[in-house]
Amino acid sequence: MSVEVRQAHPMFAAHVTGISLEQPPSGETVRLVEELMAEYAVIAIRGSHADDAQQLAFARAFGPLELPPDLGLKSDSSPHRRIAFGLYDVSNLDAEGNLLPAESIRRGYSKGNELFHSDSSFNTLPSKWSLLHARIVPPVGGDTEFVDMRAVYDALSDDMKLRLEGLHAEHSYWHSRRKAGFDAVSREMEAALPGAVHPVVRTSANGRKCLFIGAHAARIVEMDEAEGRALLDALFDFATQPEFVYAHKWEVGDLVIWDNRCTLHRGTAFDGLTYKRDMRRATINEYGPEISSTQLLETAQA
């Protein structure tokens, strides 16, 4: 089957058919996907029914896995896992595949996924891509929206671009969770993911400058807290205007890949107490060992 590419939004994002996930990608496929990602930043490979092992093998062809962290929650240390180790469980399901109860702590902190963010921007290792595979999708809602932060940067005024040069933002996982209403953060959870500092302006894979902010961005290091927060809020509001947003409506078998270095994304709401949504995410870093953020912290402190 030949590869077909159809742009899904005027600024970025593409639907791709003709790439198989059922076997490790050839060198030619790796080069093609890298080129498509550099151009579109978000691609949806449609019609794949890969299993966990095949999804992991495909992801590893493009970089080392970022392993899920241990946040000290019961689900992290469960003696049996619903999905393969190395994948993030982005679902509303428990270890047996049943709907999580309304009072589940996972439901609480997962509400932060409905805010526009960049995966793992709170880690010191530079995240490259996320690869999310749809196994079960709800009949209504549960879409994923994306923002092209290259286009956002291009649309900023020259004065704002000049103002942002040299600034750095501190990114915190727990900042976004508190922002979404989850306050049950223990000292152990805080210590497991302490956050990281990154430039506010980065250069994307195709050489275009982009903003690097999102719901995890808690403060501007070089500014007082109130002024920095006001700037981040203004940039966030500007970036999430409808013209910059692509909404992906999931089909079973979709593998959507996005570049965490130049996009934001969020999941949209759905009736998660009635319908199942089973998504499994592989995340890769630009370089380094296959390690979780909590393991990385332990290594740095040793």
Layout of helices and strands, plus pairs?
Elements: E1 4-7, E2 14-17, H1 27-40, E3 42-45, H2 52-60, E4 66-67, E5 88-91, H3 105-110, E6 127-136, E7 144-148, H4 149-155, H5 158-164, E8 168-171, H6 173-179, H7 187-192, E9 196-199, E10 201-203, E11 209-211, E12 217-220, H8 225-239, E13 245-248, E14 255-259, E15 263-267, E16 278-285, E17 291-292, H9 293-301
Q: Care to describe what's here?
A:
This protein is α+β, with helices and mostly antiparallel strands and 302 residues long. Helices cover 26% and strands 25% of the residues. The protein has one domain (4-291): Double-stranded beta-helix (4-Layer Sandwich), CATH 3.60.130. It is built from 9 helices and 17 strands. The strands form 5 sheets. The chain has a 7-stranded mixed β-sheet with strand order 1-2-3-14-6-16-5, with helices on one face. A 3-stranded antiparallel β-sheet has the order 13-7-15. Strand 1 and strand 2 (14-17) form a beta hairpin. Residues 74-79 have low confidence and may be disordered.
Name the features.
302 residues, alpha+beta, Double-stranded beta-helix, 9 helices
What helical percentage do the residues reach?
A: 25-40%
CATH-scheme architecture: 4-Layer Sandwich
In the predicted model, the low-confidence regions spanning at least 5 consecutive residues are 74-79
The rounded distance between the terminal residues' Cα atoms is 51 Å
Largest sheet: 7 strands, mixed
The CATH class name reads Alpha Beta
